[in-house]
Amino acid sequence: MTSSRMYTFAIAGLSLLGISSAISASAADELQILKFKASSDPVVNPGKGWVVYGGSTKNHCKDALDVCSSAYTRFCWSQLESEEGKFNWEPIDRELRDWDSAGKQFGFGVMCESFHSGMKYSTPKWVFDLGAPSIAYDGEKVKGQIALKKWDNPIFLEKLSNFLAAMGKRYDGDPRISFIDIRSYGQWGEGHLGHLKGSEKLSPDGLRNHIQLHLDAFKKTRLMIPWGEPLYNPVYDWAIDKGVAIRRDGILGNSNGSELIRCKGKVPSLGEWYSSYEVHSRNTGQKYEWGDKLEDRILDDTVRGTFTYQNLGQYDMKDLFVKEKRPFIDKLTNMMGYHFLLSEASMPRHIKSGTGFEALFKWENKGLAFIFIPCGVAAALVDKDGKVVAKCPATGCHPEKWAPDGKQVSETSSLKFTAPSGSYRLAIGLFSDPTRPMPDIRLGIEGETVGNWHILGNIDVD
């Protein structure tokens, strides 16, 4: 500073933005310090949150669509390759088109066996015709359902590998996909042999091989495997080191989410309920009914397992959960996964076009987990009509390092705008893909937004 005098004053008009601000200035320079309040409103962001199960967008109410970030379903391998080498991707493509049109991602798994299937074969019949050994059992809908006897059979593994390679070629890296399950072993692909008397348990090395086949086919899209039983814990830890997320199917029933603690700070986790909201919310004294204790149980399991994702009432086709528990759902929306706040930003009040300047940002992650999708920060100049006239990356900001511990993270970033002289509003935005025209990751703060750009304050360009 060229003078020992310092002036502190409020910027006129910033109260209209819901921003408190002060400026420290000298005759040569001015620095504005902008402070922001956390919002209690639910913030739905990609890569986290509630997952709606079953059916198309038309099967769910507006509230369910508003609070979910992704949809999800499971397919049987035989649906997608009923004849060797002839693939029917339409069941997956139809879901992707439908949910993408609603602005939601879609996750899915492909099972090699399902007790609930209406088909005799979940693994294609032609795999057994080629010599893969089988067992027969009575499913929920089909008597004499055919399932694999040996999950490490070379014929089965070769044909599964070919299928996965084709699926990976078509879908790996598709931004419409939130995650893909690894469901090639066991009942429902859950890594156990429920109902499958006579089927032989995989060794840990055998399960590792199944996972590796998926990793070979999918280099970009997040893979996720259901936790099955303690025998495979070392394999799940190995998979986590490879970037594979873990899910636990059976929350509120035979699990309290503790199997997912191993994911903390490393990969996403997902909690799938044992049954639907309609069942778990009852209070008739039956097993896994929680009645008025349901919210406490969901909250406890969510925190214990540091869930990144959770099903929205399981296969709750009536959307009863969201209709009856919306305030509770909104609360957990901001807890699951990451939840970013900007508490303070400091930068000059006046800048020169084409000349760089430094800005200081103070961030917080109030969620249960790190962010596990790509995320970059950018700044923009917005004119009085809400048009972005210039933007630049805030390369000094690293959202992937913002820990879910509620502590502030201070980061300094060099910014530079080239824009006509005039008065603008400075904005900040978070992107899962830098090529997107607008930010798609929102902050949990009060104040004005323009196309998901968070308005920080006024700035003049000379």
Architecture overview:
There is one protein chain. The chain has 462 residues and is of the alpha/beta class. The protein folds into two domains: 7-40 and 344-461, Immunoglobulin-like; 49-335, TIM Barrel. The protein is built from eleven helices and 22 strands. The strands form four sheets. Strands 4-5-6-9-10-11-12-13 form an eight-stranded parallel beta barrel, surrounded by five helices. Strands 1-2-3-14-16-19 form a six-stranded antiparallel β-sheet, with no helix packed on it. Strands 15, 17, 18, 20, 21 and 22 form a six-stranded mixed β-sheet that branches. Helix 7 links the parallel strand 10 (223-226) and strand 11 (245-251). It is elongated and about 80 Å long.
Unreliable stretches? 1-28
> What's the total number of strands?
22
CATH topology of the largest domain: TIM Barrel
Gyration radius, rounded: 25 Å
**Structurally, how many domains make up the residues?**
2
CATH class category label of the largest domain: Alpha Beta
Helix content range of the residues, please?
Answer: 10-25%
Largest sheet strand order: 4-5-6-9-10-11-12-13
User: Which superfamily, in CATH terms, is the homologous superfamily of the largest domain?
Assistant: Glycosidases
The helix/strand class is alpha/beta
Span of the ends, CA to CA: 20 Å
Biggest sheet architecture: 8 strands, parallel, barrel
Give me the oligomer status. single chain
The CATH architecture classification of the largest domain is Alpha-Beta Barrel
What number is the mean pLDDT? 93
Give the CA-based shape: elongated
